[in-house]
Amino acid sequence: MRALLRDVALVARFTRSVPSGTLPAVRGKVIHHEADSTADASTVFRFLGDSATWPDWTPIERCDITVPAGPERPEERTFTTGRVRVHERVVERTPDARLVYELTDGLPLEDYRAVIELAPTPGGGTHITWHTTFRPRRPGTGWLYRRALDKATRTFVDGLAQHAALATP
Predict the structure, then answer these.
(1) What is the CATH classification number for the domain harbouring 84?
(2) What is the pLDDT of residues 63-93, one digit of tens each?
(3) Which structural domain range is residue 127 located in?
(4) C-alpha dihedral, 127 to 79 to 57 to 122, nearest 10°
(5) pLDDT per residue over 13-32, tens digit each?
(6) Is 23 part of a structural domain of the chain?
(7) How far apart are CA 73 and CA 81, in angstroms?
(8) 65, 93, 134, 143: which one has the fewest Cβ atoms less than 10 Å from its Cβ?
(9) pTM, whole model, 2 decimals?
(10) How crowded is residue 40: how many other Cβ atoms within 10 Å of its Cβ?
(11) Per residue in 128-138, is it b (16+ CB within 10 Å) or e — as a string?
């Protein structure tokens, strides 16, 4: 995982040196992972929906809630891992079913949006689907970010499924 974070930091450092708008527009990238947990959706969402628990089941080292969620205000959070710090806004939260967040700062990506959906499985567990889309700000870097973020997302999905299963009595 350290190598993955080093790759993300390296790409971020490289892309900052390329002036914005100097290269042609780029296509969007897609990351999609799924996993099953033996835990029910309520248990899975207990961890997914609580940003402060993410360091417990992901490689993320620290979570800071910068703007707590309110009736008319989405939660904003900062996740830190090594030298990588990303800022996100939770734009949709449907208990036991769905969480959507957007990247607001921290990586040279545009239109970054992750949609995590939970669905019951016949055995009483939960099927987790994590679908992310983004566009790199700098053409030619999308494949690097997709590779690094694909590995991270796979780790997140598997970590969530396993962590929730261990929390189930």
Answers:
(1) 3.30.530.20
(2) 999 999 988 899 999 999 999 999 999 999 9
(3) 2-12+28-167
(4) -10
(5) 444 444 444 334 446 899 99
(6) no
(7) 26
(8) 143
(9) 0.83
(10) 18
(11) bebbbebbbbb
